[in-house]
Amino acid sequence: MCDRVACSTVGMVRYPIAEKVVLVTGATGGIGMAIARALRVRGAKVVVTGRRQDVLQALAVELGSNHSLARVVDVTDRESLDAAVRAAVERFGGLDVVIANAGLAIDPPTTIAAVDEREFERVIEVDLLGAWRTARAALPQIITRLGHIVLTSSIYAYCNGVVNGAYAVSKAGVEQLGRALRAELAPHGATAGVLYPGWTDTPLIKPAFGGSRAATEMLRHSYPRPLRTPISPERVAAAAVRGIERRSPRIIVPARWIPISLLRGIVNAVTDPIIERDPMLRQLILELEETAGRPARSHERHAA
Fold this sequence. Notes:
Blueprint: H1 4-9, E1 21-24, H2 30-41, E2 45-50, H3 53-63, E3 68-72, H4 78-92, E4 97-100, E5 104-107, H5 117-144, E6 148-152, H6 165-185, E7 191-197, H7 213-222, H8 225-228, H9 233-245, E8 250-253, H10 258-262, H11 264-277, H12 279-290, E9 297-300
Parallel strand pairs: 1-2, 1-4, 2-3, 4-6, 6-7, 7-8
Antiparallel strand pairs: 5-9
């Protein structure tokens, strides 16, 4: 527990990232890699983790060997996360910030009725339980050092997850995990926040941007152009770093999604019946369901 003054003020002051030790999961590409680079530019010491040793080592060299550390981590394996936290402490003396960013999505997208059950559960295992394991492994350090946790969620936390059910379930769960952590860390003087990226230009969104005719048409038909225009991973990373330095509870990027989040109760009540009844969307849902005979495969997440 922190003292009363620290507890009452820690969430209100700036939290400069320079010289902080930050662990990032899912750092082998996309948003995770962009965040690692943005953190280093701001002067942080960065522990980059993921599944691909070669990519991690190259990134660590790019970031500077004196200020970075690469560790192979599987977020379904708590022991590998504990080992990464220990390595951060041994190398840099402690851990101040953790960014739980690793995840998967199912490609091609399909319905809950047609999806391979193992793939559905794998997404939950990595995207939701992986975030839980990451946070839990880091919590002793975060509490001791009055640090900060960022959990990568998505606009799917509050948008209908049609044909992306596993991903949407996971991201809604991540949002709730982050909110609970924020409240529970307050007495200790530490903080947590949730990152909500919109469509981000990474391999994850390819099915909805030309990789699947039906998924691409669903996106075009369901969202106005401003909401379906992808942004760069670097833009998400810049917002994430600003959010850490402000100890923000929510980081929504791009900002055009903020009104949707704030008005989600009204928006969902209006849009859910439209999705259910729209003849074109119904046909596209059936098309994706019918083509699910091909083996579904999980796609390492490089965006939210």
